[in-house]
Amino acid sequence: MQPLVIVGAGGHGRETLDVVEAINELDPTFVFVGFVADAADPELLGRRGAVHLGPADEVSAVLRAHDAGYHLAIGTSGVRARMDAELEAEGLGAHAITLVHPLASVGGDVRLGAGVLLAAGARVTTNVTLGRHTHLNVNAVVSHDCTVGDAVTLSPGVLVNGNVTIGDRAFLGTGAIVLPGRQVGADAIVGAGAVVAADVEPGVTVAGVPAGRVGRA
After folding, report:
1. pTM of the prediction?
2. CA dihedral 165, 167, 173, 177 (to 10 degrees)
3. Per-residue pLDDT, 216
4. Distance CA 74, CA 111 (A)
5. Does position 93 have pLDDT exceeding 90, yes or no?
6. CB burial class (10 A; 0-12, 13-18, 19+) of residue 57?
7. Most-buried pick from 27, 34, 151, 190 (CB within 10 A)?
8. Which residues of 66-79 are buried (b: 16+ CB within 10 A; e: fewer)?
């Protein structure tokens, strides 16, 4: 079984542990070593029987000490991308672990980058590419013929229709909808419940129905 360290011990990190445990219930795959994080609530971790292994700047040493793979369970896209680059520079990028909850669905002709997370209820249909460390949270959907970049965050209930392109590090808030054929640029932020009916430029924040520009990321 593969030793696994989860980087990030907040709510998203503990939800990621749920995914690991669900995978192991069906097919014992991972030995969960513990969390690496700058902040960790000992009571919450204790209730999960989990160990805090140290702060984020010690992640490389922890991985080498345990000969472990890792998953970046950090909700902020930019921070996730930065940590990925740092681990790649230290020769640890190949240790990134992709996690797919048994209640997620993955169709044919789908490419999942290293470190991808598909939470319970996530749906990916056909001819879809998800980049490194991209996260589909609970009930997020990516439909046919989409390309999603690296370190993208799709919050719970996001619906991405067909033929959409989403740039690196973009963040889509809870319940956001991207209409067919649209593009969401790198580092863009789409607010919760927004409906993207026109292309979103890189680095721009949009919100509302239809989504309109409210600032820069």
Report:
1. 0.94
2. -10
3. 54
4. 22
5. no
6. exposed
7. 151
8. bebbbbbbbbebee
Instruction: Identify residue 146 by its one-letter amino acid code.
Output: C
- The mean per-residue pLDDT over the stretch 123-145 comes to 98
How confident is the model over 105-134, as a mean pLDDT? 98
- Which tokens in the block code for residue 68? 């472990």
Task: Report helix angle 77-89 to 59-66, nearest 10.
Answer: 60
Q: For residues 54 and 136, what is the distance between their CA atoms, to the nearest angstrom? A: 27
Alpha carbons 200 and 118: distance in angstroms, whole number: 24
For residue range 146-201, what is the model confidence (pLDDT) as tens digits?
999 999 999 999 999 999 999 999 999 999 999 999 999 999 999 999 999 999 99
CB 189 within 8 A of CB 173: yes
DSSP-derived letter for residue 96 is B
